[in-house]
Amino acid sequence: QVQLVESGGGLVQAGDSLRLSCVASGPTFNRHAVAWFRQAPGKERELSEFVAAISWNVGSYYYANSVKGRFTISRDNAKNSVYLEMNNLTPEDAGVYYCSASPTAFGSGRANDWYYWGQGTQVPVSS
User: Fold this and answer.
1) Which of 78, 96, 83 is nearest to 29 (CA)?
2) Closest CA relative to residue 51, chosen from 65, 32, 33, 30
3) Beta carbons of 20 and 6 less than 8 angstroms apart
4) For position 44, what pLDDT does the model report?
5) Closest to 25 measured CA to CA, from 122, 120, 118, 96
6) Which residues in the chain belong to E strands, given as ranges?
7) Which of 29, 53, 55, 116 is deepest in the core (most CB within 10 A)?
């Protein structure tokens, strides 16, 4: 069992930066890959857009094309934490950002493939 808690969201302006954190609990977290998804207004969480993912051993990561070069995912297993550094935010980046974890889903950008989810953190972006 893995529990995830996101934080760091808040209203920003276009061009601003923001750092999201995901703190996990559970004895097996360090064997889980972690991904960030974002849910657009009016859409179900199952249809959330993939943002970025990092492997359990921090050796591999991948990003959605829409955020490459602007977002950076990182992980500190000693702190049971995963971070998403977001730079040069645009209104299209707005949404509820979820942290998710899975022992087997690394490589997938489909929300339904990721097993554990946090409660989400809101990131509104004004133009």
Assistant:
1) 78
2) 65
3) yes
4) 86
5) 118
6) 3-7, 12-13, 18-25, 33-39, 49-54, 61-63, 71-76, 81-86, 95-102, 116-117, 121-123, 125-126
7) 53
pLDDT at residue 41, rounded to an integer: 83
Helix (H, G, I), strand (E, B) or coil at 75: strand
pLDDT (0 to 100) of residue 59 = 81
State the pLDDT confidence band at 47, using cuts at 50, 70 and 90. Answer: confident
Other CB atoms closer than 10 Å to residue 59's CB: what's the count?
7
- Amino acid found at 62: Y
114, 108 in Cβ contact below 8 A?
A: yes
How far does Cα 105 stand from its chain's mean position?
A: 14
Q: Tens digits of per-residue pLDDT, 82-113?
A: 999 999 999 999 999 999 999 999 999 999 99
